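FIELD: query
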Amino acid sequence: MGKIIIAGIGPGSKEDITPAVLDAVRGADVIVGYKYYFQFIEPYVKDGCECIDTGMKKERERAEQAFLLAEQGKTVVVISSGDAGIYGMAPLIYEMKKATLSDVEIETLPGISAFQKAASLLGAPIGHDLCLISLSDLMTPWEVIERRIKAAAVGDFVTAVYNPKSHGRYWQLYRLQELFLKYRSGETPVGYVRQAGREEQDIKVTTLGDFDPEDVDMFTVIIIGNSQSYIADGKFITPRGYYREQVNEGNKIGQDIMIESFRTIAGELKNDYPLDHKWALLHAIHTTADFDMENILYTDDGAVETLYNKVKDGLLKTIVTDVTMVTSGIRKGALQRLGVEAKCYLSDPRVAEMANTEGITRTQAGIRLAVEEHPDALFAFGNAPTALMELCDLIRKGKAHPAGIIAAPVGFVHVRESKHMVKPFKDIPKIIVEGRKGGSNLAATLCNAILTFDDAAQLKPGRDL
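FIELD: result
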């Protein structure tokens, strides 16, 4: 009885073939493989060795031929490019041995895989946890492939992509890019190598946002970085963590935790959303750990971005809150960085006097005073529905012209009604936590979402922690 040796001959260059594989090729009676790969081992084939080409996409026939020859007492080397165990011949031959109950001895010799060769040419992109995904749906349903793509993106794995395109498969790579951009920053490094290790070798480094699927073909391996990957001096690097404080560009531990939390939340959302709504939603869920926010958080179209632009352009200088807890939760670093003041009037001595004189709540009185001094502020409510109702009344009387409203009072009396009262003001950007839920923490975090909207595209919260 002969023997089958399954050998990975590496990505293409003779220098990348391991000594063990070369010894196997030199000792083979028969070599079975796809004809394109014979050119890489030809100098090492002994005289009299038969080389059998079964043609492209003839893997099963190749395996059957190998068993037939081995059962005749011959030493058969089955060659695969890269590593034979990665999208290669090894699994098929072992399955065939089991199915046919063959007594043929099988040995597997590893090879340098295409993704390893590509990684070495790009720099050091696979320095941490990684996964491999093939976009070929010849034997794997696309629904399964798409689930794996999402899992890789959500899990923050460095991801190597095999079989990215062919003449018949043109859209799958576009879909992969679309899915990754849902969970990763557009600045995520991407490297790709065509014909790695061969004369036609071509190496490119870009970002996930700028990556053009039309620039690759079936001979290209793509590597997508994780959240820690970066490009330096044209090289693509994924750190292991030895110099974490340098790589994270000064991120504090709290920010790293917040970034990871946001990615986790984004991966568990039921639907896709416009960026500015998604940014507010991520903040709301992160603060409450309540995924019901996906059902009850309402934002006007473009509200978050509109309010951020007003801040950026110097048109919005003041945030007025109904209670001091909301003011306390708005990040001081963001306020200082953007030149915005957050104010609550509850401690103003005029409030108690007005509340007693007018027979209204102190929060109502605080809003009346705020409107007199800052009629065009961003008003944020996290506690008192009566204060929100007061603002609505002042808007209708033409005394208040808010830049925006965050309506998140919490409770059981007048809460829902106060939020309904806000909705008709079509010209005012609004963020509303509908129903009974809300709270000072929610109102504050929604303010923070507005102040940090320029971090939304990179999904990088917590700059001002």
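FIELD: remark
The mean pLDDT is 93.
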